[in-house]
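hi support,

uploading two proteins for the ticket. first:
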Amino acid sequence: MGIGLIFKIAAVGILVTILSQVLKHSGREEHAFLVSLAGLILVLSWIVPYVADLFETIRNLFQI
């Protein structure tokens, strides 16, 4: 896992926070929720391969 992934996650977090606040103040709470959900799904899609690799490494370590 590189430092670039951490910066991408931070950038998505900042953008989602700004967009959510703007949408909430304009009275569009539903859209703010959808933006937050989309950001979460995007970040999870980046993280899932690393978690799968971690579990594979642990499985090989203990030879289960």
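and the second one:
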Amino acid sequence: MQNSADLNVWESWRDRLLVADVGSAISNAIIEEAKHKAQVPTAELFAAIIAKRLRRLEAMVSLEGRQPGVIMTMGINGSGKTTTIAKLSRYYLAQQKTLLLAAGDTFRAAAREQLEKWAATLGGLEVISGSGDPAAVAYKATAAGVERELDVVLIDTSGRLPTQAHLMAELGKIRRAIDKALPGAPHELLLILDATGGQNSLRQIQGFSAAAGVTGVIVTKLDGSAKGGFLLAMAAQTPLPVRFIGVGEGSDDLALFDADEYAAALMGVEPQARLQ
């Protein structure tokens, strides 16, 4: 039987997981798994357990065989969608891909201006925009990408909450417009998740998946105090590929998701050898 001192040590680690937004049920499961592996808990042990659980989320975006590959981004207000599109643009430009951007957030003039500003700093990328109907903008951009035989079309959408039924339904309309311009598109529907949202991100995943379908997520704002431990609950409940993580405000602050590095950062240690 464990003495009270031992129990306090394990409880302190449970609290640490909770602070990292891991969630109560998953935190308890990780503690129990750690107890079966060692008598003395360490950050390295927890990092290895967490990495193994997150590894199922590792998967890069693949647009091979698509011309263009169409990526549609979604998310709530303030999640960092427009900035993330700029980061994705830089990522594909580094691979010598030809790009076209679509300012599908037609409700906020500032969003279009922000995207155009980013496009200018990235070498004068073209931004297709319009007023009123975002589905029309998405259709026009996709059709232009097909006509010009471009490699990638990145489509922004306006921020919305999963509880806003009419706005969520609009996502389905946008997706259908893209498919009309290029059957089978969009090839990626990426949900942008703000790491500071914690467990609320799980509700966002459910809402956006029901409205339009989600093929992967990008976690933003991991450069501050946000820990992003909610990915452990996502891995257990609604596993979706984590395509990238955003680690800063610059257009080049986008990294591929690596479970071992992510878990090590979560626990404040150096990445360890993979736990089998």
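thanks. also noticed: The mean pLDDT is 89.
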